Every structure is written in C-alpha cells, then in structure tokens.
C-alpha cells in the first residue's frame, strides 16, 4: 500500500474549499498530502496539481471530491486519468461517484463501466463550464444594458481643462502644449477635447 493523497480545487481565491477539505480530513489524510489549487479547471497547468503528480508513485491512492474538482475540460480529464492510472499506476477514488473507484472492478466489466461513467461525468463537467461562461457573458451584457460600467472609473478632468481646450480650439495652443498643461498624453487630451466639443454641440441643439 502506497501513500494516500487528496486533491482540492476551487475556481477562484474567493471560493471556499471547506467542504472538500472536511471530506479529506474525514479520510484521515495527512495535511502535507493534501494539495489545493485556487484557479479555473479549464486546464491542468496548476502549481499544486503539478506538484502532486510529481510526488505520486506506484500504488499510491488519490482522493478527489468530484470529477469537476479534477478539471472541466473533457479531453484533458480523460488524458490525466490515463496518465495517473496507466503511467503513474496509482488508484483514484471520486468520493461523489462510488463507481469511479479504481480499486474496485479491475476486471473487464468493471473497467468498462468505470470508463463509461468517467466519460459521461467529464462531458458534464465541461458542459457546465461552458454554461457558466455563457451565463457570465449574458450577465455582463444585461448589466451593460442597464448602464453598469466595467473597468476602471474615468479620471476626472483637471480644473483647467475647459479653458485650455478653448485656447487649443482657437489655435492659441498646440495640442502638445495643451496636453502638457492638462497633465495628460496628447492622444488622451484630443479624445477628451473631442468628447467635450460633442457634448457642447449637443447642449446647444
């Protein structure tokens, strides 16, 4: 019997991994053998996962809470499963899916059933990731339609901007001099000056 490990993943630093951690603690897995990543499951380029795989040896046992904690990319989940079970020759237990326990059913029928379950769950995991991205895009679009602005808030114009802009419009200041007087790049000055002129034109109508 080799060493026992646990792998935990949440999609961001704001998400809580307590549910997964409690499950690992109930299995009495040593703290030093629990690896946690806080990033997307779109691929396996994760520091703690990479560190875990390097440590795994033949006959070790790896626990994960659910297949989507391993990842959310169908092809890569299947490839990593192959690497872990065929090349590393370890056993994997997916706690939320008892059929995905490589210690059991190592005969032809057991392997066949496990492969089917793995492929279905991997597909579901990737499909959910796609749905999450779609819902996020729809949410952003709806927020923009309501007037919600994203990104950095615009910087306020300097107090002298209107007077400098007027001098520039009358040709009494070059664009470079006007931008310098306002403490901004020339391209920014020209854009904001153009927006200001458009606003004034609209106000006069």
Task: Please characterize this protein's 3D structure.
With 205 residues, the protein is of the alpha/beta class. The protein is 54% helix and 10% strand. The protein has eight helices and four strands. The protein has helices spanning 18-26, 47-55, 67-70, 74-87, 108-145, 161-169, 175-182, 186-204; strands spanning 4-10, 34-38, 61-64, 91-94. It has a four-stranded parallel beta sheet with strand order 2-1-3-4, sandwiched between helices. The chain is elongated.
Please specify the SSE layout and strand pairing.
Layout: E1 4-10, H1 18-26, E2 34-38, H2 47-55, E3 61-64, H3 67-70, H4 74-87, E4 91-94, H5 108-145, H6 161-169, H7 175-182, H8 186-204
Parallel strand pairs: 1-2, 1-3, 3-4
Helix pairs in contact: 4-5, 6-7, 7-8
Structural features:
Rossmann fold, single chain, elongated, 4-stranded parallel β-sheet, 2 domains, alpha/beta, 205 residues
Outline of this structure?
By secondary structure, the chain is of the alpha/beta class. Helix content is 54%, strand content 10%.
Structural class: alpha/beta
Element order: H for helix, E for strand: EHEHEHHEHHHH
The N- and C-terminal alpha carbons lie at a distance of: 83 Å
Strand order of the largest sheet: 2-1-3-4
Bin the helical content.
40-55%
Number of helices: 8
Shape: elongated
């Amino acid at each position: 019997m080799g060493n026992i490990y646990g792998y935990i993943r949440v999609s961001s630093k704001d998400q809580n991994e307590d549910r997964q951690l409690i499950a690992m603690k109930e299995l009495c897995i040593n703290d030093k053998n629990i690896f946690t990543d806080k990033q997307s499951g779109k691929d396996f380029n994760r520091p703690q996962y990479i560190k875990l795989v390097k440590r795994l040896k033949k006959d070790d046992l790896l626990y994960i809470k659910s297949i989507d904690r391993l990842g959310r990319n169908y092809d890569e989940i299947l490839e990593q499963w192959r690497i872990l079970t065929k090349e590393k020759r370890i056993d994997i237990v997916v706690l939320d899916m008892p059929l995905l326990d490589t210690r059991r059913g190592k005969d032809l029928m057991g392997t066949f059933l496990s492969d089917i379950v793995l492929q279905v769950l991997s597909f579901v995991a990737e499909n959910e990731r796609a749905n999450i991205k779609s819902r996020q895009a729809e949410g952003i679009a709806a927020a923009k339609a309501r007037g919600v602005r994203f990104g950095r808030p615009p910087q306020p114009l300097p107090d002298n901007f209107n007077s400098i802009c007027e001098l520039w419009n009358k040709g009494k200041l070059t664009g470079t001099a006007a931008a310098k007087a306002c403490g901004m790049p020339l391209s920014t000055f020209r854009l904001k000056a153009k927006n200001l002129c458009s606003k004034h034109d609209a106000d006069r109508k």
